[in-house]
Specification:
The complex is a heterotrimer of chains A (793), B (290) and C (157).
Chain A: H1 3-8, H2 33-37, E1 53-59, E2 65-71, H3 73-76, E3 81-86, E4 118-119, E5 125-131, H4 134-143, E6 145-150, H5 157-161, E7 176-184, H6 187-193, E8 196-204, E9 207-208, E10 216-222, E11 227-232, H7 237-248, E12 255-257, H8 275-287, E13 291-294, H9 297-303, E14 306-307, E15 310-318, E16 324-334, H10 343-351, E17 360-368, H11 383-401, H12 405-412, E18 421-426, E19 432-435, H13 440-451, H14 453-465, E20 469-481, E21 487-493, E22 499-503, H15 512-524, E23 531-535, H16 552-579, E24 586-589, E25 592-595, E26 598-604, H17 605-614, E27 630-635, E28 641-653, E29 660-670, H18 677-697, E30 728-732, H19 754-765, E31 775-776, H20 780-791
Parallel strand pairs in A: 1-13, 8-31, 11-12, 16-17, 22-23, 29-30
Antiparallel strand pairs in A: 1-5, 2-4, 2-6, 3-5, 7-17, 8-15, 9-14, 10-11, 10-13, 15-16, 18-19, 20-28, 21-22, 21-27, 24-25, 25-26, 28-29
Helix pairs in contact in A: 7-8, 10-11, 11-12, 11-19, 13-14, 15-16, 16-17, 18-19
Chain B: E1 7-9, H1 14-24, E2 28-31, H2 37-42, E3 50-53, E4 64-66, E5 69-73, H3 78-82, H4 85-90, H5 93-98, H6 104-109, H7 112-118, H8 124-131, E6 135-140, E7 143-148, H9 149-152, E8 153-155, E9 158-159, E10 166-173, E11 179-186, E12 196-204, E13 210-218, E14 225-226, H10 228-234, H11 241-254, H12 265-289
Parallel strand pairs in B: 1-3, 2-3
Antiparallel strand pairs in B: 4-5, 5-10, 6-7, 6-10, 8-9, 11-12, 12-13, 13-14
Helix pairs in contact in B: 10-11, 11-12
Chain C: E1 9-14, E2 17-22, H1 29-36, E3 55-58, E4 61-64, E5 77-79, H2 88-95, H3 105-118, H4 124-130, H5 141-152
Classes of the chains: A alpha+beta (793), B alpha+beta (290), C alpha+beta (157).
Chain lengths: 793, 290, 157
């Protein structure tokens, strides 16, 4: 189905069969809940793998070094040690892990699972120990002597781009991994002629995903079948399978990747392929014995990919009314030691213009290699940085012209009648960047009304006159989501008469077992209780991408809808034969298919599966009955759909300490049609908590030598119940014309504009001082420094 | 995140514990609540050959009244002190500070004496005990001795305990009449180690002037630091806003913190002044209303 | 395990059942519960005492099982999430959708059960403060708060 075809039809949620309570849009409680609150959830480390050995890794303590030698003799003698392998011991694994998203301009440097010669960031694994227990494995790790030639390192984009910077990779003549510019209109000319120009430099710090469950992988090789079974804690089981098949030279069908039924959060880094993922299954094959590695939090702090560090140089040109004429955004992106994928900076490139009509755009990425753990997507994925760059400048424009920041935004916003709106830039898939739908001004007005914007401004004025530092901030954003290439759903009638929805995508707490049963229920007109959902097993469905980029409801949801409709037809085809009634007269009643609404003329799903799927050995099928009631459907979105929103906050700054208190926070959110409002609200609120971390608390510090300085939650401040304030939600539902459900992504919108919104509010609070907030997270120490700097002016 | 192997000893009397300490001294670590030690073990930053678990030692788990004060033996949990009505009445400073220590789970197991013996310069209890002029009761097979808090805390994670000595308890003398106390800290998140903290104990003379004062800061030096210059400003003065302001400036001037990833030296110095002012302002108001 | 390691016999009552084990003295209560007794409801989030996922009750008080040696629990009563079968918090967590991935949830529920018994769940600020040792990266805090508030006030009955 093409987007245009759908767009012409009135866009509305899927309707349930007449008389049946619609499930799509209902706040259904989750099926997952019961096991999770009783301690019966099954996460990776809860799997029963009797006798499994446990692994631990030797990791380099140096950010840049050459391995001279590794002495494992003392460790190998330790009772309970099963085996020790260095990179040099496993030449089969000395293959580069390709970037997940690449670009012809990328100067790609090889990332090896267990590098044999050269290490590029603290925490990179150089040897693996397998032992009878993790205790012994860690004892052995301590006994392994690695002789390193320590080399100079760089740990910021500024250091990486300095003229005499040490080179992260010996093979390159500098530390630039990629340099891409995108232009719309005539930005240089527009900057020259704009009536007003403003510029600023913003720094956004590194932060992590910090799922409460760390990474991990377990594997077992079955000599009899030649099949390798791998249990990773991943967001992308099929990606892991494909990578393992590539590394081991195996057929993909011989590598079965099963994500445990429960996952303790992903947030981006678990969608990546880390070196350990290749090493552990391999040594399990070598040993012909199950091996398990569960990452501990210390490892997580140094070896799990991170995100966010970017330096933005932004310049805007605008007219006397505050209308944008041009924006120029040159940003340094910290790629880390290797390019694990270019998705983050590419998303930043295309997210910059946001909700505004901007005739001239120059957006330029300088991706740098640094001696730090590589970059992956983390909830928000390049968007929070772009929103900081754009939304901070919207406030500066208002300040410069003496206009209200809400008014400046409204003057520049794309109107509801301008969709589909072509931004003028190219999306990362090469297509013209096009927003599918939305109504930015109306959501903004709804948020301002809920926030009582004018009242807040009056209260702010009163507070200011009483000497209090109160500020108001807004932050608008768009979120390209529901990305391709595709996701699938396989629906099958099982032998007990249940419809089983099998997805390649794997849940991380979003409630897939519930949501996809809701969608299938409406697609089929069958009650939810007869529908089950299975996820995350490559042996159950051959192709898939994974759960990331707020894409699964769009893709897997639409696939489930299509497959559900087709499965209904197939079931009715069988029932029509068995009941001798035309298919048009059939409907579901409980677990039976009923003709003409007459329960006397009905056949159960069990009866149907008996005839069409189970059959009788050697006996011919009844005429007209198809064999095998099963439908697999894939949905490939034509392009990204765009969720949008705007946040509004009031903050107060303690002039003594620089401490920031959030007095009010309103979130306006438009993710199109909603499958389950209870769960969408949970996603938005949860994303907001992550955004609070990015705005005020979280930073992964590295010193100049590339040594990580945040190695525990004592040094890395993850928000707790105290730090996350009360939030008010405002919803708008603008359906996407790009998929039959009309849905958009909901997983990241809560996070994306929070740093920009709070930074705007803090700078507004400090306006009496003229203090500038340009570095995130905004710690009290930075606020104090900003106030002090202006005091001394 | 697994400790190195160690031999586990579980003495049931102080004498047994002291004998074990005497035998293994430098190679041993004492385990009470374990809330500071266990992370160090898990990180393999501490690796004693012997772990002497004193949790089964009799007679160390109850706060008791002693002549002119209260004695908190080695196994009294932080939570017990935090929620003890008697101690709250005698030393409001203790619950005020304890509520800022980590989280309830930690305080349920963590002991007061364990935190003191750990001597983290950013921790609340060493600062508060220094402000209260508490006395450490230290024992070994060689005998017992008493050490004032100010001598006990020496450096980062270093006390005047010898390798064979056990901190068996801490004694806090009753506060004189007309004494007010206050505690304030500033931490990035609730429960985090403070960037800086100030504890104050002020005794007013009959004319309302400050007769005695102990003002102690943490987070600014390798051990709790008496703010003696600020104390001098206050002595003999009524704690008016002007006097408190002068004390704030004196406090700021007399500390010499180092900067780290969380806060610059300047910011810490500034915070000590702010916190000193806040503590003194509370104390002044309380004293004026008494 | 290395030479000279004494393996104390530890007897502990977990969720009402008396369990005996001889484990290496360095084994934490968390590892003993999960690996030895198969009680995997208690989760390991950090092993550093900073996240609260491994919260259990020892003699009725909430503690972090990653910072507690199993050997220290000789003669103690331990309650894990599996032992809170009929606690009203469970229904309240479902009602308020107070979790997503569920990994921190056992720790949240055990911690909240203790908080309510401690009698300090009267005000929202108190619940926030006394639950601040239990991190939730999914960010379900407002709903966890709502669930605890409801049970603490007796409104669930």
């Amino acid at each position: 189905m093409t987007a245009e075809a759908i767009a012409e039809a009135p866009v509305r949620p899927v309707e349930a069969t007449p008389g049946k309570q619609p499930m799509i849009g209902a706040p259904v409680r989750r099926r997952e809940d019961r096991r999770l609150i009783t301690g019966q959830g099954r996460y990776l480390d809860d799997l029963e793998l009797p006798g499994a050995y446990e692994a631990a890794f030797v990791r380099t303590p140096h950010a840049s070094a050459r391995i001279r030698s590794i002495d494992t003799t003392a460790a190998a003698r330790l009772p309970g040690v099963i085996g020790i392998w260095t990179g040099a011991d496993l030449p089969e694994l000395v293959k580069p892990i390709p970037p997940k998203v690449s670009n012809p301009l990328l100067r790609d440097m090889p990332r090896y699972p267990l590098p044999p010669e050269r290490v590029h960031f603290v925490g990179e694994p150089v040897a693996v120990v397998v032992a009878e227990s993790r205790y012994v494995a860690e004892d052995a790790v301590e006994l392994i002597e690695v002789d390193y030639e320590v080399l100079p390192a760089v740990s910021s984009t500024t250091a990486a781009l300095a003229p005499d910077a040490p080179r992260v990779h010996d093979e390159l003549d500098d530390n630039v991994a990629i340099h891409v510019t995108q232009v719309a209109g005539e930005p240089e000319e527009a900057l020259r002629t704009a009536p007003h120009r403003l510029s600023e430099r913003f720094v956004i710090a590194r932060g992590g995903g910090h799922s409460m469950e760390c990474r991990g992988v377990a594997a077992r090789y079955d000599v009899g079948t030649g099949q390798l079974t791998v249990w990773p804690s991943t967001q992308s089981p099929h990606y892991t399978r494909n990578m393992l098949a590539y590394f081991y030279g195996m057929d993909e069908d011989d590598v079965r990747v099963v994500v445990p039924r429960d996952s303790g959060g992903g947030f981006g880094p678990k969608a990546q392929f880390h070196g350990e993922d290749a090493v552990i299954p391999y040594v399990a094959m070598l040993l012909r014995h199950p091996v398990k590695w569960i990452e501990d939090r210390s490892e997580n702090f140094v070896a799990t990919m991170m995100e966010r560090n970017q330096v933005h140089h932004v310049e805007v040109g605008f007219d006397d009314d505050g209308k944008l004429i041009v924006v120029k955004n040159v940003f340094e992106h910290d790629q880390g030691a290797y390019c694990a994928g270019l998705q983050v900076p590419m998303i930043t490139l295309s997210t910059l213009p946001g909700q505004y009509r901007i005739p001239n755009i120059h957006t330029e990425l300088i991706g740098c290699y640094t001696n730090m753990v590589p970059t992956s997507s983390v909830r928000g994925a390049g968007r929070p940085q772009a929103v900081v760059a754009m939304e901070r400048m919207m406030d500066r424009i208002a300040e410069h012209l003496g206009l209200d920041p809400a008014e400046v935004r409204l003057r520049n916003m794309i109107r509801a009648d301008e969709f589909p709106y072509k931004v003028g830039l190219t999306f990362r898939d090469g297509s013209p960047l096009t927003y599918d739908s939305g109504d930015f001004p109306s959501l903004t007005k709804a948020v301002l009304a809920r926030f009582d914007y004018d009242g807040e401004r009056e209260r702010q004025a009163l507070a200011r006159s009483a000497g209090r530092l109160v500020g108001i901030g807004l932050g608008a954003y768009v979120e390209g989501c529901g990305l391709g290439p595709y996701e699938g759903a396989r629906l099958r009638l099982t032998n007990d008469g249940t419809v089983l929805v099998t997805l390649a995508a794997t849940p991380l707490g979003q409630g897939y077992e519930t949501i996809y049963a809701q969608i299938a229920s409406d697609a089929m007109g069958l009650d939810m209780e007869h529908i089950a959902v299975a996820t995350g097993d490559t042996s159950r469905i051959p192709f898939g991408q994974g759960s990331f980029a707020s894409r699964t409801t769009v893709t897997a949801g639409s696939a489930t809808l299509q497959a559900g409709r087709e499965l209904r037809e197939k079931i009715f085809e069988v029932a029509a034969v068995l009941l001798g009634a035309p298919a048009e007269e059939l409907c579901f009643q409980g677990d039976r298919v009923c003709a003409g609404g007459d329960p006397g003329r009905s056949v159960s799903l069990r009866d149907i599966v008996q005839v069409s799927n189970i059959g009788k050995h050697g006996i011919t099928m009844p005429r007209g009955v198809p064999a095998g009631i099963e439908v697999t459907s894939y949905f490939s979105p034509e392009r990204a759909s765009y969720a949008s929103g705007i946040h509004a906050a009031t903050v107060e700054v303690d002039p003594d300490t620089g401490q920031i208190k959030i007095l009010r926070y309103v979130i306006g959110h438009d993710c199109g049609n909603v499958i389950n409002p209870l769960l969408v609200d949970g996603q938005v609120l949860g994303g907001f908590a992550h955004g609070i971390g990015n705005a005020l608390y979280e930073e992964s510090f590295y010193d100049d030598a590339g040594q990580p300085q945040s190695a525990s939650y004592l040094d890395y401040s993850l928000p707790s119940a105290i730090e996350v304030p009360k939030v008010e939600l405002v919803h708008q539902f603008t359906p996407s014309p790009l998929n039959p459900l009309g849905v958009k992504g909901a997983g990241e919108g809560g996070t994306i504009p929070v740093p920009a919104t709070i930074a705007n509010a803090v700078e507004d609070a400090l306006r009496p001082f003229g203090a500038r907030i340009t570095s995130l997270p905004i710690t009290p120490a930075k606020v104090f420094a900003a106030m002090t700097a202006t005091n001394h002016r | 995140m697994k400790p190195r192997p160690f031999t586990y000893l579980a003495p049931t009397s102080v004498d047994e514990a002291l004998a074990a300490l005497a035998e293994h001294s430098f190679d041993a670590k004492v385990l009470a609540g374990g809330q500071s030690l266990a992370p160090l073990l898990n990180f393999r930053m501490a690796s004693p050959e012997y772990l002497i678990d004193i949790n089964d030692v009799a007679g160390l788990d109850r706060v008791r009244r002693v002549d002119g004060g209260w004695h908190i033996p080695a196994l009294v949990r932080q939570r017990t002190v935090e929620r003890s009505p008697e101690l709250r009445a005698a030393f409001p400073l203790l619950p005020a500070a304890l509520e800022q220590v980590a989280h309830p789970q930690i305080r349920n197991r963590g002991t007061v004496c364990g935190s003191l013996a750990h001597a983290d310069p950013a921790a609340e209890l060493p600062t508060v005990m220094t402000a209260l002029d508490a006395t450490m009761r230290v024992a070994s097979v060689r005998g017992e001795r008493e050490v004032p808090a100010e001598e006990f805390f020496q450096f980062h994670f270093t006390t005047s305990l010898e390798d064979d000595e056990l901190l068996v308890g801490v004694t806090v003398d009753d506060l004189p009449p007309a004494t007010s106390t206050g505690f304030a800290e500033f931490a990035p998140r609730h429960g985090d180690f403070a960037l800086a903290a100030v504890a104050g104990v002020v005794t007013r003379a009959s004319d309302g002037a400050v007769g005695a004062v102990r003002l102690v800061a943490s987070g600014v030096a390798a051990r709790p630091q008496r703010l003696t210059a600020a104390e001098k400003v206050l002595l003999g003065q009524r704690p008016t806003p002007d006097v408190v302001g002068a004390a704030e400036r004196a406090a700021r001037g007399e500390v010499d913190p180092t900067g780290d990833i969380h806060a610059s030296a300047d910011y810490r110095r500034h915070l000590v002044g702010v916190l000193a002012r806040r503590v003194l302002t509370t104390i002044a108001e309380e004293g004026d209303h008494a | 395990m290395g030479p000279g390691v004494r393996e104390p016999t530890t007897t502990v009552t977990v969720n009402g059942a008396r369990l005996v084990a001889n484990l290496d003295a360095r084994v934490t209560l968390l590892d003993a519960l999960r690996d030895r007794f198969g009680l995997t409801g208690t989760k390991k989030g950090c092993d550093q005492g900073t996240c609260g996922s491994c919260t259990v009750l020892v003699d009725g008080r909430r503690v972090l099982s990653c910072l507690t040696l199993f050997a220290q629990c000789d003669g103690r009563q331990v309650t894990t999430i599996e032992g809170l079968a009929d606690h009203p918090l469970r229904a309240a967590f479902i009602k308020h959708d107070a979790f997503q991935c569920g990994y921190c949830t056992p720790g949240q529920i055990v911690s909240a059960a203790a908080l309510i018994r401690e009698g300090r769940a009267g005000r929202d600020e108190d619940i926030r403060e006394y639950m601040s040792g239990n991190l939730c990266r999914c960010g379900a805090y407002p709903r966890i708060l709502a669930a605890i508030r409801e049970v603490a006030s007796g409104a669930h009955a």
